[in-house]
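Operator note (shift B, R.M.): manual run for Tetraspanin-7 requested after the automated queue skipped it. Running by hand, logging everything below so the morning shift can see what happened. Input copied straight from the record, untouched. If output looks odd, do not overwrite the archive copy; leave it for review.
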Amino acid sequence: YAMLLSLIFLIVLVAAVVGFVFRHEIKTNFESNLNLALKNYNGTADHHSEAVDTIQRTLHCCGVQNYSDWEKTEYFTQKGIPQSCCKSQDDCSVEDLRDPRKAKLKVFVDGCFFLVTSTMESKMSVVAGISFGIACFQLIGIILACCLSRYITNNQYEMV
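Run finished. Output pasted below as returned.
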């Protein structure tokens, strides 16, 4: 049991170190995937489009760097900026969303990439604290398992 806990502890430790060392690559990868999701956005119920809509509605953002990122997409040429970018759903018409100058007043202008990464970085201290707490419990479990094993081994010889 102590060996299993030690193995899990080492795996979590390695994952944390790798995540910290490669955090810039993770950001770059996330940005390219967000750009790809915008490029392939079609407004239907597929997972990528739903994810983009959810991010934009939840974080009150639009596009990757800003709302003008939508102008480079195929969806914009057909339907304009998506409804999920609107500040108020009642005040956003299809005509406004097709015109970038009018849309600037009706949609969120901040990009989602900065908001997502800053939200993740602000929550990192909470994640690190919880991970540290779990690691402490794992170390206590390892120590107690070793003590129990030693106690059982010592008592076997006394039973004779």
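Quick read of the result: Helices lie at 2-21, 23-39, 47-59, 74-79, 94-98, 100-106, 112-158. The longest helix spans residues 112-158.
Leaving this for review. - R.M.
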